[in-house]
Predict the structure.
Amino acid sequence: QVQVVESGGGSVQPGGSLRLSCAVSGYGSTPAQLCIGWFRQAPGRGREGIATIDMTSRTTYEESVKDRFTISRDSDGKTFTLQMNNLRPEDTGVYYCAARTGYYCDTSRTFTFWGQGTQVTISS
């Protein structure tokens, strides 16, 4: 069974930074077309795609986080990071990591495996 586990959430002031990690396990071998996505959801809002990365390190970003957030993968191909800088109150929400396989890798695609989420709170 494939498992996805997020960690690193917390509370910071506006302008601060957080680093989220996503650990993926359960694949017999890491698929060449593995795609990892980060999503978030705040009360009163639907789920919002944030960023994706594939195994060639190609990335996509939602416009609201571009130039502030960076998604990357570790050399083991199973650990992924979302570095979040210059955080704003509107970045507050539960952040989810998800995995899928396929040629396409962006947040509009269907992701098969999801983590349970980690809370990120930005406030003064």
The two ends are 41 Å apart (CA to CA).
